[in-house]
């Protein structure tokens, strides 16, 4: 009465989800979405499936050999929206991306090298490329190591992520509105997309300090309503259309850093305050910080030189982003964004979905 689907449960960065080979899922997109909802859970608690009842643990990655000559594997990210019984494949997820390379190596999709393996991944959500460098001593993926990332306990082997030309990933351009500054509901915003569409705002302009806990911000209904009003209006301006049912754009409020970083953030994905900050969300926020005239002017501390490392502080620590910058100072262009993530294989086997959802044959 149930259909068994091969998969792996993996942590990628500070997210967790199911990883599938494309050939193990239905080819029909609508049916595939129903299968993923059944696997992760359709109710708010996700009590009858493997989801963790929050966005960071209700994710899926679909991986296959790449159909293009410039990548090794293709990766489609799918967010199963908690409590709504639907999916959203509009944005990328840089955290889940970190485990795509280990998964692909484990599944034999790419040749392994010693002591490390480079895997070029095409992110199908945005048609962008990322090179992942995985530790594979003796030709075997290692998950143990000394790398530490905030939001994840302990240490693991480092995975270097080099994002290549991700500007306009979902909106078509780095500044989708054509402006460095826009104004909605009397609030100045910077709409930016360098791997993830993000609306960046000064926290003080929305009547908060920007240093509150996630639970305090989530309980502030007046603030949340104001934030959602801005998001819904920003969506069409960013070429994203009606975003009422989408998880983009993300909303990131910034304040001066307090722990030695370059900027402090509180990010919503899109309705709940993120315990940290997404990988590509951090890249977009860091990019906004280096743009002259953005809302980050006077808030973010921007290092000099063509290689800029920015520490983006968030509720559970910080996220370091390295930007390779070209062009004039008044119009910088980010040619490469590099960062460090970790991943771990937690479990592999089969996830069971009701046969009424999919019989495994169509």
Coarse morphology: globular
Q: Tell me the count of domains.
A: 2
In sequence order, what are the helices and strands, one letter per element? EEHEEEHHEEEEEEHHEEHEEEE
Low confidence ranges: none
Main structural class: alpha+beta
What is the residue-averaged pLDDT?
96
Largest sheet: 17 strands, mixed
CATH superfamily grouping of the largest domain = Diaminopimelate Epimerase, Chain A, domain 1
Beta percentage is 25-35%
User: What is the terminal separation in angstroms?
Assistant: 16 Å
In the CATH hierarchy, the third-tier topology of the largest domain is known as: Diaminopimelate Epimerase, Chain A, domain 1
Quickly give the CATH architecture of the largest domain. Answer: Roll
Strand element count: 17
CATH class of the largest domain: Alpha Beta
Radius of gyration: 20 Å
- Secondary structure: helix percent: 10-25%
Per DSSP, the total helix count is 6
Brief sketch in words of this structure:
The protein has 362 residues and is an alpha+beta fold. The chain has helices spanning 29-40, 94-98, 100-106, 214-218, 221-237, 279-290; strands spanning 2-12, 15-21, 59-65, 73-81, 86-88, 116-123, 128-135, 159-164, 182-184, 187-193, 197-202, 250-255, 263-268, 307-314, 317-326, 333-341, 343-354.
């Amino acid at each position: 009465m149930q259909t068994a689907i091969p998969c792996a449960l993996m942590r990628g960065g500070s997210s967790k989800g199911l990883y599938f080979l494309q050939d193990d899922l239905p080819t029909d997109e609508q049916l595939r979405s129903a299968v993923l909802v059944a696997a992760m859970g359709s109710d708010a608690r996700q009590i009858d499936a493997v989801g963790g009842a929050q966005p960071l643990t209700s994710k899926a990655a679909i991986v296959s050999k790449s159909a293009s000559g410039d990548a090794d594997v293709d990766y489609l990210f799918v967010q199963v929206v908690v409590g709504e019984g639907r999916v959203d494949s509009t944005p990328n997820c840089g955290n889940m991306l970190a485990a795509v390379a280990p998964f692909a190596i484990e599944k034999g999709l790419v040749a392994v090298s010693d002591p490390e393996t480079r895997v070029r991944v095409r992110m199908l959500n945005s048609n962008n490329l990322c090179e992942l460098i995985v530790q594979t001593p003796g030709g075997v993926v290692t998950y143990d190591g000394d790398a530490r990332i905030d939001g994840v306990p302990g240490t693991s082997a480092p995975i270097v992520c080099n994002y290549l030309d991700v500007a306009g990933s979902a909106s078509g351009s780095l500044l989708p509105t054509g402006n460095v500054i826009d104004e909605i509901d009397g609030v100045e915003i910077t709409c930016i997309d360098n791997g993830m569409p993000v609306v960046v705002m000064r926290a003080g302009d929305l009547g908060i300090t920007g240093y509150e806990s996630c639970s305090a911000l989530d309980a502030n209904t007046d603030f949340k309503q104001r934030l959602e009003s801005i998001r819904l209006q920003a969506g069409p301006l960013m070429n994203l259309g009606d975003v009422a049912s989408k998880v983009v754009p993300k909303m990131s409020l910034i304040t001066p850093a307090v722990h030695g970083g370059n900027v402090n953030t509180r990010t919503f994905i899109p309705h709940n305050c993120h315990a940290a900050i997404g990988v590509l969300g951090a890249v977009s926020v860091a990019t906004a910080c280096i743009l002259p005239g953005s809302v980050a002017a006077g808030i973010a501390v921007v290092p000099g030189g063509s290689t800029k490392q920015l520490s983006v502080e968030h509720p559970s620590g910080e996220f370091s982003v390295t930007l390779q910058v070209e062009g004039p100072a008044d119009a910088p262009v980010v040619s490469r964004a590099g960062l460090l993530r970790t991943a771990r294989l937690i479990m592999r086997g089969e996830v069971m979905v009701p046969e009424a959802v999919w019989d495994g044959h169509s």
